[in-house]
Amino acid sequence: MKNSFLPKFKKQKLIKGFTLVETLVALLIFVLAMGAVTSFIILSYQANKYILKESVIVDEARRGIETMVREIRAAQTGDNGAYPIELADDKQFIFYSDIDNDGKVERVRYFLATATSTGFGSRTIECTAVNTGGFCNVTFSNFLTGTLKSASATVSVEGDLDNSNEYVEISAGGTTLTSYLCQNSCSHCAGFYQGTTTFDITSIIDDNTSITFTADGNWRVDRQCPSAGPYDHSMRARFTLNWTEQISATGTEFQKGVIEPVGYPVQYPLNQEKISVLTSYVRNDPPIFEYFDNNGDEITSVPARLVDTKLMKVYLVVNVDPNRPPNEFELESSVQLRNVKTE
User: Domain range spanning residue 85?
Assistant: First the structure.
């Protein structure tokens, strides 16, 4: 007879989990999948960003050509009596036109110029003198990649410099910057740099991009300061060179310069030209401007262009990066100079 009060046991299925190896494999697959998705998103974003930049550049060039054609069409005699066309080169065109409809004729220049940017740099070099009244040199070289705009040197010293007759002379490129650095203002073997002074050395540096600085302690600067090396030192110097430079950037810029007429008799001062950038990344190997006479024949002689030009063709090639698609965009337009047109 079965006892109904006895507990009843049911068989339970054994649930098997992931092993450590399986878990690691699953994590690896997940990480690889997420990496692939992330890479795809980044590449898509970069591609879209590049395409957007390319479209902006093309739109700038298109609007620039439209403005230029409108202004060239209205070329006229300058307020100083100058002929409507002043210069007619392959990649530069200067003419006179009332571009803002103010009743005054401006001198207008469209030209291709190398794009530039301003770069900044800084380097620090230290040197040590181990002899009494000793000196040490540092040389900065190959630090410019463009054209120098300004340069300065910040100099600090440390050593046996606690008396009025203990000081350091600093020179750059053979030119003395100061003869009494740290006189009456520094401590004996302080262990840190003192007397920090900055000098403008723009006029001293040349295009060779190499300059040597010298720190020369006077005869009373003794070798009394402990060093980490085998010898005590009399003086240490730290030189920091800072500079700004103009760097030619990748690509070229199509620019516009405008000079307003001034004075009486009327003049167009070249130093008052206001320059703006119409578009960047212009890749023209062929001419931007071509000139044609009244018969439609191209004029190749530069002097003849000034008086015989009746029709012009404007041609721009723009591309942000020639090494990647899309290919170069070509924009072309023709313009007839109505005020020098011959019937």
Answer: 48-105+261-340
